[in-house]
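During the second half of the funding period, the structural biology subgroup turned its attention to how the target accommodates small molecules. The most pressing case was protoporphyrin IX containing FE, which had performed well in the primary screen but for which no bound structure existed. We therefore specified the complex as follows and requested a full 3D prediction, including the ligand pose.
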Amino acid sequence: MSGADQTLSQLPDYASSHGSPGVATLSGGQPVDTVTTSLTAGPRGPLLMKDLIFLNTMANFDRERIPERVVHAKGAGAFGTFTVTTEEAKQYCKAKMFDTKGKKTPLVVRFSTVGGGSGSADTVRDVRGFAIKFYTEEGNWDMTGLNTPIFFIAEPMLFASMTHATKKNPVTNVRDPNSFWDFFSLRPESINQLTVLFSDAGIPDGYRYMDGFGSHTFKNVNSNNKVFYVKYHFLSNQGLRTLTADKAAQIAGADPDYSTRDLYNAIATGDYPSWDMYIQVMSADEAEKVKFDPFDITKEWSKQDYPLKEVGTFKLDKNPTNYFQDVESVAFAPSNMIPGIEPSPDRLLQGRLFSYQDTHRHRLGPNFEQLPVNRPAKFPVTNYERDGFQLFDNQGGAPNYFPNSFGGPVMDPKAAWDYNDKISGSCTIGRYDTTTDIYTQATARFTSMDDGQRDRLTSAMAKSLSGAQSFIRDRMYGVLAKVDQRYSDMVKTKVNAIIAAQP
Ligand code: HEM
């Protein structure tokens, strides 16, 4: 944490920088004579229906909460600016935000944990969300990523099940190691990401000290309409810091909002965090020839074969003015893409294209893109969509149908995607399994660890796995043995010791 806790001075700072706004009003703007005393028939009598001040207050209060995000419910956000620092990206991508060195694009970022509810502790062993909304001149581009370059599964159909298995048990409302390990031991393609999760990297020391990744492979199209496949990396200029399991548990009790507080304080004291953006690039021809599946999010691309190319940097220098308005209401979606950036055949990414805006319509209402934090740089937008709840701008008298003869917005053929995805292998429509070569990278990850790292990884995993049924544990030992026999043996020995020590 940087210096004194700035979260404690928010109200005093407000008071010293703002005069009184004058009298309080009802939501309709009518002045009120009291906000403290309800209207009653006599000092001990019942309340009166004509107490509009009381009714207004309660009615608003009763509707304060909106549905929390179905995943990534706990998070923190901030505003900042992205600056292009090299000519690299424009070779591969025609997006205007990359066209000139030095060009700046405003952005909002939300960091999050994944599994916990909106009131959960920040310092849990969990993947972290790393979502960026770039307000580009061509509309919003959302990079809704993570602090890991890989993910547990590659099949989007499984996402709801994976989330059910990792969140609370529907009967006990408590996290359940049986469902967690049952699911993952039956889907061993998750072992690469599980090894990251239970390693030292599994509990970042706040949001500033972690890298971000687009994780997926994205399709980029350059100004000559040439296709490239690209992975995005955001490397922290604060360096990487993690917490031990014991320290994290202690902080979770003492200060559940630890990472949120840390980010707020850093920005409030001018210690602005920043990340440098890099890309890995693969040509379309190469993507057809490489021996691995470049669209499989359970695996990384080798940095030797696909070196990181520097693109730009972003800095966060503004805290939210109001959490609910700027962070709870922000709506990221992998489907928010701009000309030059398109979905690759990555199946999980394709699955995500539907989910986010669908959940936003449920969580924030159909006009969520008109909320100030979600508005594109060019607002109001011009199209033929109209009406619906919570509308801020309905495009006035512009024609609401197409074709029209009255000056409505027109189509831009240049905005067309490269729709001609080359479909690799058979193009017979079917439901194809996504799991191939699921152990090689996990084995490399385990082998590259030193003894201490392996010890902590296996201890953390054993602690969690020891809560699962013995047949699930045995299945998991089998998965681990396929990564490395030592991995399996170490976890098994530690699980047995934990169980033996239990009363
Ligand atoms: C949040 C779905 C995989 C990153 C969410 C939300 C949903 C969702 C419904 C809540 C959004 C909201 O209420 O605003 C899915 C589905 C996936 C998937 C269906 C797979 C099929 C992934 C992957 C990543 C990711 C692979 C990263 C590479 C995030 C992040 C958030 C999020 C960062 C939080 C966004 C925020 O801060 O508001 N996801 N997700 N998700 N997801 Fe995913």
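Two results from this model are relevant to the next phase. Residues 8-376+434-438 form a domain with the Catalase HpII,  Chain A, domain 1 fold (CATH 2.40.180.10). Residues 253 and 368 are 35 Å apart (CA to CA).
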